[in-house]
Amino acid sequence: MRNTSPEKLLHIDTARLYQKGVGAEGIAPSMLDALTPELKRIHRELANKSTGGLEAEFACLNLHTAMPAAFAQIESMAHAIREFEDVAVIGIGGSSLGAKAVHRALSAASPDTSTPALHFLENTDSYRLQSLMQRCPPAKFAVICISKSGGTIETVAQYLILREWLEKTLGRDGARRQQWIVTDPDHGWLRELAGRENIASLPVPPRVGGRYSVMTAVGLLPLAAAGIDIRALLAGAAANAARCVSDRPGDNPALEIAALFYLLDTGKNKRLSIVMPYADALQLFGDWYRQLWAESLGKRIEGRPGKPTAGTLPVTALGSVDQHSQLQMYLESPLDKFFTFLAVDAWEHDLAVPVTEENRKAFPYFVGKRLSNIISAEFQATRQVITDTGHPNMTLRLPALNAHALGQLIDLYQRITVYTGLLYGINPLDQPAVEKGKKLAIQLLRGDDLA
Fold first, then answer.
1. What three-state secondary structure class fits 89?
2. Among 55, 85, 353, 381, which is disulfide-ready with 140 (CB 3.0 to 4.6 Å)?
C-alpha cells in the first residue's frame, strides 16, 4: 500500500463567500444569522437519519466507521487482483467516478508500477473496448464489474463482451477466476450470477446510493487493487466527520458551506457552482463532484412556486488550463456564479525551472522558482481577479496529495450535499428523473415506441 504524508486537515477558507471578503455579491452575516434556526433543525435531522450505521437512511455518512470491518475481505480480494497486469473496472456514474477520481489523484502523485493498470470502462464505446482487448493478453487480464442494481445496461453489455472474450481463451472456469463482482447483497442479475458461478463478490450497502458509494467496496476494491491506502482514505473521512458534529456553522465547515451555497442561490441568484482545481491530479474530482451535486440537488420543489427548482448547475474547470478558455466569460458575464478553488500545499514532485544566463533576461521571474511556485501564482492571481469582479469564492487547500486528504475532501462534499438538500427541502439521495431515462432506453432496446 502507498504510504501517506502526515495526517493534516484540509484548510477551508470561506472568507470570500461573505460580503466582507468579496463585496455586495457575498453573504451578509445577518443572512446567515437568520438561517440559524433552520440550520439547527437540519443538523438534527441529519444526525437522526445517520443513526444506525449501514441501516441508517443517511448510511453514506457512516462509511468511515462501518467499512473498516470489511477491510480484511477487500484487501484479500485486492491482493488476488494484483496478480494481473490489467484490470477492467466496469461501471458508470457513481459506480466509477469516485474510484476513478481518487485513483487519478493518487496514482499521479505517487505512481506504483508494481500494481496493475486500471481501465475504467463506462460508456458503451466499441472503439475503446476493442482497443483494450487487442492490447491486453487475456491470461493477464482481470475484470471488476460494479453495479448496485445488478442490471445497469452500459455495465452489463460490456461485462458480457469481456466474459465471452476471456472464456474463448481461458475456458469458462479459467475466466471465472479472473472476475470479481460488486453489487447488491441480495438482489439483481449480477448477484444471481455470482452465486450461480461462484464468482468472488462484495456487497454494496443497500442504503448507500451510487454517487455516495466511493468509500464502500465500489471504490475500495479497485483502489486497493491499485495499491492505494484505503485505510488512510477512510481515516481522512473520519477526520472530516469529527469536524462536523456541531450545529453551529462556525464550528462545522460542512454546515457553513451548505448554508452559504444555499443562500448564494436563494438570496443572491447565483445559479452556477464552479469547481476549479489547480492540479491535474484533481481534475477528475470535478467529475465526481458534478454528478454528486447535480443528481442530488437538481430537483423540483413541490409547493414552492417562488422557487420551483432546487440546486445550482455544477461546472468544472481546471487551473491554469481554463484560464485560457473559460476565464474570459467568468470575468465579463453576469454575476450569477460562485467558485470553489482546490489547491495543494505540498507537492511530492516539484521540478525546478532551469534559468541559464541566455534566458535570464527574458524570464527573470523564473530564477529560483519551481513549477509549484508558478501554478500557485496562477491560482492566486485568478482568485484575485475573480474576487475583484465580484464573484463569491472559497478555497480548499489539501495539505498533500494523499489518501487521507482525499478522504477528507470526499466526506466534506458528501455532507455539504446532504445538508444543502435538506435546506432546499428535497431528498438528496434519490434521482427520479434519471430513472425515467433508464427505463426509456430499455424500452427502445426492446423495439418499443416511446410514444
1. strand
2. 85
